[in-house]
């Protein structure tokens, strides 16, 4: 353990999800009510100065978890803790929470009022949260925020409306507005996925710099495991509403312990690895297409929801989600292979890759 790791180990999480579950009640066109089981008993911990990547394919429940953490939806069950204390859902409790936890959405254009200038947007956030009132002080703080997100010189941007900015500049304004609140936690829900490919890296680097300079706890939500690898200290993998694996980024990427994480890695372009003619790495999931689609969450498979696609599925997988198996260095997975002493099957296959 490095000195930094030791310091981190002693720091308590700033934000924690404990057993967070969300079932949405929806009514179909025939008037029938059903439950969409979007998230099941999710545990997650965010630490100051660290980034957790939440990775999963479309519809796996990533946004649902972000929205629960931002208090946009009430949880069906489970708890959110800020600085070790359960969040109070009183008006004052929620106002205090929003001062500390800010959510950045995928689409910066939809996040900004199209009729308001950058000065107004940032000034309003500063005033509402009591970090500046008016006049020169307010102007100085707006300029400081623009500097933090590299929108300089500030006079080039301060009087612009959202449509006069590029996508990347708009997302920087959204990030500056979140920083105006002086939060401890930033939740980034696919913050680069709608940006031009050429500027995605710049925005990731900006988030990394802000995390370090402001000691922010960052949740980075993405379907792109390669970008999570670039930005994150640890990764948590979500499949069809169930968290299936997590741990330090290198451990998860170098030695995935859940077959679904293997699928994600095998599907992710990586120039350093063997690639088949179809653009996928040679390996277990070459026949991914024939292994089926993610389940419908209004009628999910029982047990481990990945079992219909899993080449290792055993009887247990079809009835019960296993407990977490913990490995050294904080790496864990929920997979029967480990509970039934069958990990070698995954390892044998790993050697063939
Ligand atoms: N407000 C809602 N009402 C009903 N169902 C919802 C609601 N929000 C999300 N869902 C359902 O919950 C499941 C998870 O959706 P969610 O948006 O969290 O996934 P995601 O991983 O963020 O996907 P994407 O990457 O496509 O945004 C989906 O089946 C979705 O249809």
UniProtKB/TrEMBL annotation:
GO terms for molecular function: ATP binding; ATP hydrolysis activity. GO terms for biological process: peptide transport; transmembrane transport. Keywords: ATP-binding, Nucleotide-binding, Transport. CDD domains: ABC_NikE_OppD_transporters. SUPFAM superfamilies: P-loop containing nucleoside triphosphate hydrolases. PANTHER family: ABC TRANSPORTER, ATP-BINDING PROTEIN, TRANSPORT ATP-BINDING PROTEIN. It comes from Microlunatus parietis. It comes from the Bacteria. The keyword Ubl conjugation does not apply. This is Peptide/nickel transport system ATP-binding protein. It holds the Pfam family ABC_tran. The keyword Nuclease does not apply. Residues 15-265 form the ABC transporter domain.
């Amino acid at each position: 353990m490095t000195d930094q790791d030791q310091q981190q180990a002693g720091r308590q999480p700033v934000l924690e999800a404990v057993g967070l579950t969300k079932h949405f009640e929806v009514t179909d066109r025939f008037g029938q009510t059903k439950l969409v089981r979007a998230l099941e008993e999710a545990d997650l911990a965010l630490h100051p100065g660290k980034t957790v990547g939440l990775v999963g394919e479309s519809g796996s429940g990533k946004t649902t978890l972000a929205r629960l953490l931002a208090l946009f939806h009430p949880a069906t069950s489970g708890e959110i803790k800020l600085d070790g204390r359960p969040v109070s859902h009183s008006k004052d409790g929620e106002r205090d929470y929003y001062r500390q936890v800010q959510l950045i959405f995928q689409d910066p254009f939809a996040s900004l009022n199209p009729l308001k200038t950058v000065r107004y947007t940032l000034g309003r956030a500063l005033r509402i949260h009591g970090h500046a009132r008016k006049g020169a002080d307010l102007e100085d703080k707006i300029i400081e925020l623009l500097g933090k997100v590299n929108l300089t010189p500030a006079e080039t941007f301060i009087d612009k409306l959202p449509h006069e900015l590029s996508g990347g500049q708009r997302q920087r304004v959204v990030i500056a507005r979140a920083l105006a609140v002086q939060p401890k936690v930033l939740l980034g829900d696919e913050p680069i996925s709608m940006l031009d490919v050429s500027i995605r890296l710049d925005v990731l680097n900006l988030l990394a710099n802000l995390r370090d300079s402001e000691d922010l706890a960052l949740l980075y939500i993405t379907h792109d495991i390669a970008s999570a690898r670039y930005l994150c200290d640890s990764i948590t993998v979500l499949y069809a509403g169930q968290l299936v694996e997590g741990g330090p980024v290198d451990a998860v990427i170098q030695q995935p312990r859940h077959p679904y994480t293997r699928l994600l890695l095998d599907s992710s372009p990586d120039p350093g690895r063997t690639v088949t003619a179809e653009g996928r790495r040679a390996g277990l999931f070459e026949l991914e297409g024939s292994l089926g689609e993610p389940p419908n969450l209004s009628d999910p498979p029982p047990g481990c929801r990945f079992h219909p696609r899993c080449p290792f599925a055993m009887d247990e997988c079809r009835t019960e989600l296993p407990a977490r198996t913990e490995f050294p260095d904080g790496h864990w997975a929920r997979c029967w292979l480990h509970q039934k002493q069958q990990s070698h099957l995954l390892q044998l296959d790993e050697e063939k890759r």
